[in-house]
Structures are given as C-alpha cells and as structure tokens.
Amino acid sequence: MSEFVDFLKHKYAYVAMGEFKPGTFPEAQKLYEQAVSTYTKGFKGAYLLQKPGTDEGIAVIMWDEIGTMQDNMSEAYKAILDEMAHLFVKPPVTSFYEVNSEIGTINSN
C-alpha cells in the first residue's frame, strides 16, 4: 500500500532561466554544482541545461515538497549564490512547477 501512496505523491521542480555574461558559463556551472551539493533532505535531483553556443541556461532542481527547498538554504548555499550573482546579465526568472508526469526508461536487467 505504501508504494501506491508514494506513487501518487508529486514532485516539485524549481526552475531558473537566465543568461550569464559572455564566457562565464563554466564558472557558473561549477558554482551551481557546489550549491546543489549542499542540499540534503527532500532533494530529488538537479539538471543544468545550456543552450548550445550561448551563455543562456536553465536550472531545474527537483524537490519532494516546495518547503524543503527553504529548509536547504544554508549559509554555505547562500554564500555560493552571492558568489554567482555577478555572473548573470540580469537576475534569472524563477518559478515552481508541480511535476505531473515523469517518464523514464525502464532498465530491464
């Protein structure tokens, strides 16, 4: 029964879309990975997407609940975000989304 209830739970995605100053995407990627590495409870995964040939990107961070992101905002996390802020052309656009469908490959061993 608990597996069925877990199946019904939806994840949430925090999405940030932004553009970095020319040539700074690699530095931003390093800082993003450091920030994500500070997450613990409720964290379900993260992706950093880069539009080919540009410094535009989308960060997608998966959470079990919206509130757990707030719980993970440690001093170390905030310091990394402060370090990253000057790399943006302008502040990123951010939103939360409920994950309504999740489709993946089936690993048949």
**Strand order in the sheet with the most strands:** 2-3-1-4
* Elements, N to C (H/E): HEHEEHHE
Helix content: 25-40%
By CATH, the architecture is named 2-Layer Sandwich
What does the overall shape look like? globular
CATH topology: Alpha-Beta Plaits
Number of strands: 4
* Average pLDDT over all residues: 87
Helix segment tally:
4
> Radius of gyration over alpha carbons?
16 Å
Q: Can you tell me the CATH class?
A: Alpha Beta
Main beta sheet: strand number and arrangement?
Answer: 4 strands, antiparallel
Compute the separation of the termini in Å.
25 Å
Show unreliable segments. Answer: none
Number of domains: 1
Beta-strand percentage range: 25-35%
- Class by helix and strand content? alpha+beta
Can you walk me through this structure?
With 109 residues, the chain is α+β, with helices and mostly antiparallel strands. The protein has one domain: Alpha-Beta Plaits (2-Layer Sandwich), CATH 3.30.70. It has 4 helices and 4 strands; from the N terminus they run H-E-H-E-E-H-H-E. The chain has helices spanning 2-8, 25-36, 66-71, 75-85; strands at residues 12-19, 43-50, 56-63, 93-98. The chain has a 4-stranded antiparallel beta sheet with strand order 2-3-1-4. A hairpin with a 5-residue loop joins strand 2 and strand 3 (56-63). The radius of gyration is 16 Å and the shape is globular. 10% of the residues are buried. The model has no long low-confidence stretch (mean pLDDT 87). InterPro entries: Dimeric_a/b-barrel. This is Antibiotic biosynthesis monooxygenase.
